[in-house]
Batch of 3 targets.
Target 1
Amino acid sequence: MGYITPVRRILTAPDLEKWKESPTYDSVVSFIETLAEAVKGKTNDAECEVSLPVSQVLLVLDDVEKSIDKFPVIQDKNTSRFGKVEFRDFYDEITQISKGLLSSRIPKLQLHNDGKTDNDENNEHCNNEHCNHDNDDDDDDPLTEICVYFNESWGNRTRIDYGSGHELNFMCFLLCLVKLHVLDLEKDATAIILKIFIKYMKIMRNLQQKYWLEPAGSHGVWGLDDYHFLPFLFGASQLSTHPHLKPKSIHNKEYVDMFKDKYLYFHCIWFINSVKTASLRWHSPMLDDISGVRTWSKVAEGMIKMYKAEVLNKLPIIQHFFFGKILPAPEGVSRPPSSTTTTATTAHTHNGETVVDPDSNEGLPGHVHTWGDCCGIKLPSAIAAHQLEAASKPIPFD
């Protein structure tokens, strides 16, 4: 089969243009659009078929959630507003167990060692000098590729941050399962969002709050949220057929409290309000502007366009996109960046071995800012600020 360890290939502006015209780009966009359509008009608790593979993925997420409890934050008097280093222990745990976890929880993956993916016809007889089949670690195990997307779904180990690029990795993990025919998009699409993605969001909110993950980007996700984009996209689709709720309803606290468990969009607004005290107009101007749109259907259409423009078409994000055999690189793009040299910020030691951080900036063009860069200034977590403020308030009975 020849699965390979996924590598980054989009390094220049010309690479980005090739990416936007590639089959993999089309696959990612089509996947997200299909999922959005599948939850159109549906609440979070709507009934949907939960297939065996969906149940197995949920068990994987249960195990990830249990891993968080193994690494409590050690409180000290000099608590910083920045990320908690215990996150790295969680991250190391996930990278260590992911292959065994996915293999045991999703047995169907073991049957794909001699099977074909949807991309095999395009990859066979590829003699292009830029094709990423020149990787030496060919393997018959699809987990060689899937684990990279899975591990990178939880944030960056070095910077202890999280952003839309990590969220995209989780979607790539799910897309790989679809391309390997583990998940059936035709019948599993609704459950992928209402069961799997919502569970993923729950885990990420836990990680963000427990380890004070920093926003990976200069302005969060362009004013939508410090961390996420897709729950707004899927959430707008959920609301697109609602007969009464309007985009401006997000400014009504009673509505937000009433519908936060029913719709992804309202839950995101509730979460933002819980950690930021000023109005949306000040800390989330994009959300404030969107609330002026007349209908949720227009918001849903705009979210797809915005996701393409601000995530999939942005070099600072897509230069971190990983390509393997399941999600192949566009023809003619740059060869993988060199990882022969490492520094303290791009590698770490785990179980006595030096591990290169796949989300580092090593080998990337120096003139391009990456997510997590903001004029060289680290971005503190609003969650951290909120929790520190709460901790500093005297107990009323003191």
Target 2
Amino acid sequence: MRPGEIVALRATDCTLPPNSPDHVQDWGELLLGESRTEVGGGWTDDGASYETRGLKRRKLGATRTVPIPPVLVHLLREHIARYGTADDGRLFRAARGGRVPSTEYCDIWERARKAVLSPREAESDLAAVPYSLRHAGVSLWIKSGVDPAEVAARAGHSIAVLYRFYAKILKGGQQHSNDLIARALDEGAAP
């Protein structure tokens, strides 16, 4: 998710499997349809530091679904149980209930990096900003072999953008690709 999509996420946008032992490995789904993009109060009509918009490069009212793995289903459940939601149903809010500003989550991110990374890693560009998580997630999907069209849809990209920014991740997979093609050819030749 993009930062603006995260801060706009409401509990009603989350479809989570039943909270029972039988469903602990089930995936959930997020329905994204709004972004609260940080722009600065000088650029909005009402002086707010953000604008409520539709999804990036989509028609107003368009939505995008993003399946979420069981580990994220569990984290969302814990977050909701511990913090509840804002009056308008948003899952993530600032201490006073408003939109979480980037300065707030960037400060927390920097403290978290220093707590878990070695001093050398913390001085590097490794996960330098929270947006790095989005890039890492998309990269993981690609390296895991998820169909590029599905990766693009989940990330809210076009396939052209996906290939432009993530082409370097796709390199070096020639042997894996050869194996996939050989397997398909072998299956086609089987009686």
Target 3
Amino acid sequence: MMKVEIYADIACPWCRLGTHQFHRAVAAAGTEADVELVHRPIQLLPDAPEEPRPLMDAVVEMFGREQAEAMVTEMTRLGAGEGIEYRFDRAVAVNTLTAHRLLWLALHEHGAEVQAALATALFDAYFRDGVNIADHTQLTELAERVVLDGGRVRDFLASEEGSAEVREQAAAARREGVTTVPRFVFEDGALIVGVTSTEALGDALRKAGGR
């Protein structure tokens, strides 16, 4: 089994795109049974507020209205070309620590395949469906859809379990110089950082697998 790690934040549209391209590359290579993608936490805005607000408000604050609108228009176009629906008009910006904790739980109790399914559900919830991905009720519903036990998830989210571990993993990534995401780390040491393509990911998979 080949393990590939991805450092990604749920609030990063490029991470959504890169993850989608990775799964397409694996499917095209016919190696679904031989490759696992492990999500590692990184927060682009670790100090983002716990209170949700429209994502476009936050993007306009950071980049100005004209640049913000150009960016989301281009991202929406790129996503559509890959079969991803971005709905920035309904997306809700919020701190992603709780979502990363849930991904940590999925990996530790169910493995990489379930974690990857949860990550896809979280990306769609955030970028397509306008879900507050810090809301415990919404997170529990998402988790149940990918076979996590609702009772376990509710208890977990109500506790501080996993918080220290996720914060330390994210801090370690920053210490190691992880600033641009998505960042794919292959078993042969190869890295693919930032904007990529299904073809480039497929090539890296073949090289890492000795093909």
